[in-house]
Design a protein that fits this description.
Blueprint lengths: L1 H11 L6 E8 L2 E2 L7 E5 L3 E6 L13 E7 L2 E7 H5 L1 E2 L5 E7 L2 E7 L1 E9 L3 E3 L9 E6 L9 E5 L1 H8 L23 E5 L3 H13 L4 E4 L2 H18 L7 E6 L8 H10 L8 E5 L4 H9 L4 E4 L3 H12 L3
Parallel strand pairs: 3-13, 6-9, 14-15, 14-16, 16-17, 17-18
Antiparallel strand pairs: 1-3, 1-10, 2-7, 4-8, 5-6, 8-9, 11-12, 12-13
Helix pairs in contact: 4-8, 5-6
């Protein structure tokens, strides 16, 4: 048990270091390319990996849902991940029990390869190159750039909305009225590498009547923020009249949200900008990490009213 606790603590300490651990697995042979690619998801999103348990089929289950499994007394849906991405597995031998956006589900995979600790700088955006929006990025697993193996990092938020649309909100179900005022000419700067998440965020911000600038990585947000700070200084206006707040995801290529928040809060000029972390990695541990790097708030994806409240609280704390 002490070894397990040490491993959990080590992973927790990666917050803010721009490092993470990727669980690498295989889904079988791609039916179009006839190749066997490596896939990956963040270890933080995986509760456990276990030998495939008994699956109980459910009449009328959505496409790609094999049925349900009883995992330690909790009944969860089990998704045939190979068929979602267009692969044919020799067998579905392992179940990855994951938690996303306050929901627990299992992904059936062919086999698990390894866990690799990486810097986010070794993860490159795949947007525009990936068909269907199922892949957010490519992770270089080895040091040598020329010979390194690549893992396709899945956009699990996109997959879950495609497979289990009734369980996940689309971003336009705000049921309460929220009033948020920001200075004329100011914007909300947000960063998220998932196209689905960006669409959700923008729907909510539009509903609040808030102008925004969207970016796809922490590095892109950092560069944009520095430019906005330069523009504010050149115009002789307070920075908060340019940027009302920063909203950031955690998992992003090049620079993660923890690192982005820490850099902002350590910067002499930028530290006055409120930062809210918005992530599918729910749980008190991640909230604690968010506060440790100076973030002003943490909100789990994706409930539009919760996001609206977090934005209002960060911008108007009193």
């Amino acid at each position: 048990m002490s070894q397990v606790l040490r491993e959990v603590d080590e992973r927790a300490q990666l917050a803010g270091t721009n490092k993470f651990e990727l669980l690498v697995f295989r889904l079988g042979k791609d039916q179009q390319l006839n190749s066997r690619e490596l896939f990956g998801i963040n270890v933080f999103k995986v509760r456990e990996a276990l030998v495939m348990p008994k699956i109980t089929p459910m009449p009328g289950a959505p496409k790609h849902v094999m049925g349900v499994a009883n995992i330690r007394g909790q009944i969860i849906p089990v998704i045939d991940l190979p068929t979602v991405v267009g692969c044919r597995a020799d067998g579905l031998n392992i179940l990855l029990v994951t938690e996303y956006e306050r929901s627990v589900q299992g992904f059936a995979v062919e086999e698990v390869e390894e866990i690799v600790r990486l810097e986010w700088s070794r993860v490159l955006s795949a947007e525009g190159a990936a068909v269907g929006g199922l892949i957010t990025s490519l992770a270089r697993l080895d040091e040598d750039e020329e010979t390194a193996r690549l893992a396709l990092v899945l956009d699990v938020e996109h997959i879950l909305r495609q497979v289990l649309p009734s369980r996940f909100k689309t971003g336009d179900e705000m049921v309460q009225q929220h009033i948020v005022n920001i200075p004329q000419g100011a914007v909300i700067l947000y960063a998220d590498d998932s196209g689905v998440a960006r669409n959700q965020i923008e729907k909510t911000l539009r509903s609040l009547g808030l102008p925004f600038i969207g970016t796809k990585t922490g590095k892109e947000a950092w560069d944009r923020l520095q430019q906005l700070a330069h523009d504010a200084k050149a115009a002789g206006i307070p920075l908060r009249d340019k940027v009302a707040m920063v909203l950031t995801d955690l998992e992003m290529p090049e620079m993660d949200g923890f690192t982005l928040a820490r850099r902002i809060k350590e910067h002499e000029t930028l530290r006055e900008i409120p930062v809210v972390i918005h992530s599918s990695l729910s749980g008190t541990a991640n909230e604690s990490h968010a506060h440790s790097v100076g973030a002003d708030g943490y909100v789990a994806k994706f409930v539009p009213d919760d996001l609206a409240r977090a934005v209002a609280k960060a911008i108007q704390p009193n």
